[in-house]
Amino acid sequence: GAGVSQTPSNKVTEKGKYVELRCDPISGHTALYWYRQSLGQGPEFLIYFQGTGAADDSGLPNDRFFAVRPEGSVSTLKIQRTERGDSAVYLCASGLAGAGETQYFGPGTRLLVL
Amino acid sequence: AQSVTQLDSQVPVFEEAPVELRCNYSSSVSVYLFWYVQYPNQGLQLLLKYLSGSTLVKGINGFEAEFNKSQTSFHLRKPSVHISDTAEYFCAVGRVGRRALTFGSGTRLQVQP
């Protein structure tokens, strides 16, 4: 079946601009995660959704970052007033929300802030 | 909070040789442990995971890992590697009761002919 998809695959923007990154999880997965992976590092947790609600947003670095999942499926990560330090690969994952669940990752969106 | 240390940033190895990729973690509570692989230009893929029970876990592509609670380690092993195993490998820990994973910085396995 189809895996997690993310659009766009690449995004180039200018400092100060607003960007939206989209994630389509695997059908039927109630849990959805956003991570950020900087060059040479492992993924870093940003936010976790269970259904439509953000169950854990402790990883969001500041209030410029926001994410929604209005219908419990597709999610959008929104970054306001982008900074050069926001440049990274943004990964989305989905799962069945059980203990020790496997998180299935998408290919990521590579964001470059000039 | 938990943390994950992958001491080896790169591991070069010849084809058909055995390999061990090291992972140590720290946590004050019970954890779940994972190994993910990232092939070039692809997303992260689960290799194996430890939740409970037997400390020796077998995964896909001939990989296995052993959970050692006293040494807080979860090293990944393969008895004979192939060129196709060339990839970045990430160890991750999840705290029981919390969904977020904490990843190590990764180990690049380079299999040479």
Describe this protein with a few key phrases.
heterodimer; A: 114 residues; mainly beta; 7-stranded mixed β-sheet; 11 strands; 0% helix; globular; B: 113 residues; 6-stranded mixed β-sheet; 4-stranded antiparallel β-sheet; 12 strands
Please specify the SSE layout and strand pairing.
The complex is a heterodimer of chains A (114) and B (113).
Chain A: E1 5-7, E2 10-13, E3 19-24, E4 31-37, E5 44-50, E6 53-56, E7 65-68, E8 75-79, E9 88-95, E10 104-105, E11 109-113
Parallel strand pairs in A: 2-11
Antiparallel strand pairs in A: 1-3, 3-8, 4-5, 4-9, 5-6, 7-8, 9-10, 9-11
Chain B: E1 3-5, E2 10-14, E3 19-21, E4 24-26, E5 31-38, E6 44-50, E7 56-58, E8 64-68, E9 73-78, E10 87-95, E11 101-103, E12 107-112
Parallel strand pairs in B: 2-12
Antiparallel strand pairs in B: 1-4, 3-9, 5-6, 5-10, 7-8, 8-9, 10-11, 10-12
The helix/strand order of chain A is: EEEEEEEEEEE
Give a count of the beta strands of chain B, DSSP E runs of length 2 or more.
12
Assembly status: heterodimer
The overall average pLDDT of chain B, rounded, is 94
Sequence stretches where pLDDT stays below 50 over 5 or more residues of chain A: none
Average pLDDT score of chain A: 95
How many helices of chain B does DSSP assign? 0
Low-confidence runs of chain B (pLDDT<50, min 5 residues)?
none
What does the radius of gyration of chain A come to? Answer: 13 Å
Query: What percent of the residues of chain B sit in helical stretches (DSSP H or I)?
Result: under 10%
